[in-house]
Write a structure and sequence with these properties.
alpha/beta, Rossmann fold, formyl-coa transferase, domain 3, six-stranded parallel β-sheet, three-stranded antiparallel β-sheet, 18 helices, 11 strands, 13% strand
Length: 405
């Protein structure tokens, strides 16, 4: 265990061997106080080259993608293809509680670092592996990507407008969903270890968890459909525009969720109870779906009379969910964001000072917060290898010269 710190996971040490496709997992644990050590090859995580960059200047220390997913971590370099690199990793494993990796299946086995070997080094170690299709099954050796996993999960069929090609969500939702599920499994394994004293192996498939993370409400439909006497699963289609419509208003756009008769009645009151919307048929959810194009034109006539904030406040008062659709700038400056202090200033030694998003939850006793920026390449080599593992500066220099660091 690491030295006790603030946060729910303040007594645990995590080794992060992932690239930026899996780095969000350890970032979540770091937000909860864990001492996360990011282990990169001497050439650095390839994610350091992903745009956009701070100041629009390409630089290995200025990738916004990397900076976000690797905050709250210390960073060291280590070449696992060398015997010295593997020896040092084994020393780190002896002092750690969790190891997270997203190498291709069997890569660590080829280095003689598969889970049985790691378990012998530290029986309390929790190893979380994130791969495209898991470590077993017919797809395990296939290559994937955010687009491939998002599409193959089945979620993409619901994304976009009817009659048009499906849309890919921005960012990396498939990988981030897998990272979140792996983090939850790690926290559960740590809780279990408290009573069993034993570590565990966690196998996370991006293909599977992208569906669970992005579209969980359809899973029960399939579960019920497994009953031979039950109905077949309902077909999936792109109905978001009809079920969760987006309407223009005076200064932007809003999204409305009026599914039940009570919510519909509240929406009608928000819009001033116009006679055309008081027709009883509109209270039927299925009727509104079947006549969504006509309804859209009618509702727009009234939403355009108000601002986003006016509609949001009226929705809260009347009892119907209405959400402003902010630009990034408007979101950062919104009263809600400011009241929750959702961004804090962080100073990176190369990228400079900038606002960073904080964890989306607030706890009073064990707070989750940003303590440090993402590490520069090899920034904490001396701190970890010399101060904590006991190597001398001369040994560190020799290892660097031999290509191990």
């Amino acid at each position: 265990m690491a030295k006790n710190r603030d946060g729910a996971l303040g007594v645990y040490r995590v080794l992060d061997l992932t690239d930026s496709n899996g780095a969000y997992c350890a970032r979540l644990l770091g937000d909860l106080g864990a001492d996360v050590i990011k282990v990169e090859p001497p050439t650095g995580d390839p994610g350091r080259s992903l745009p956009p960059f701070a100041g629009d200047v390409p630089h290995s220390e200025k990738s916004l993608y990397f900076l976000h997913r690797n905050a709250n971590k210390r960073g060291v370099t280590l070449n696992l293809t060398t015997s010295d690199g593997r020896r040092i990793l084994k020393q780190l494993i002896g002092t750690s509680d969790v190891l997270i990796e997203n190498f291709p299946p069997d890569y660590l086995k080829s280095l003689d670092l598969d889970y049985p070997k790691l378990h012998r080094l530290n029986a309390r170690l929790i190893v979380a592996s994130i791969t495209e299709f898991g470590h077993a099954g017919p797809y395990k050796d296939r290559k994937g990507s955010n687009l491939v996993n998002f599409a193959m999960s089945g979620v993409m069929i619901t994304s976009g407008f009817p009659g048009k090609a499906p849309c890919l969500c921005p960012g990396s939702p498939a990988y981030d969903a897998a990272a979140l599920h792996a983090a939850i499994a790690i926290v559960t394994a740590l809780l279990t270890r408290g009573s069993s004293g034993k570590g565990q192996y966690i196998d996370t498939s991006v293909h599977e968890t992208s569906r669970l993370g992005l579209y969980p409400w359809i899973i029960p439909n399939y579960s019920y459909a497994l009953n031979p006497d039950g109905p077949p699963p309902s077909p999936e289609s792109r109905m978001g525009a009809a079920i969760y419509p987006v309407y223009p208003c005076k200064d932007g756009l809003i999204r409305v969720i009026a599914l039940t008769p009570r919510q519909w009645d509240a929406l009608v009151r928000v819009l001033g109870s116009p006679e055309v919307l008081l027709i009883d048929e509109w209270r039927s959810f299925m009727y509104r779906i079947g006549n969504s194009a006509d309804l859209y034109a009618l509702v727009t006539e009234y939403t355009e009379k108000y601002t986003m904030l006016e509609l949001f406040e009226a929705g809260k008062r009347e009892g119907v969910p209405i959400a402003p659709i902010f630009s990034i700038e408007n979101f950062i400056e919104s009263p809600h964001t400011r009241a929750r202090k959702s961004f804090v200033e962080v100073n990176h030694p190369v990228a400079g000072r900038a606002p960073y998003p904080v964890p989306p939850y607030k706890w009073s006793v064990t707070p989750a917060y940003l303590r440090r920026p993402a590490p520069c390449l090899g920034q904490h080599n001396e701190e970890v290898y010399c101060s904590e593992l006991g190597l001398s500066l001369a040994e560190l220099t020799a290892l660097r010269g031999a290509g191990a660091l």
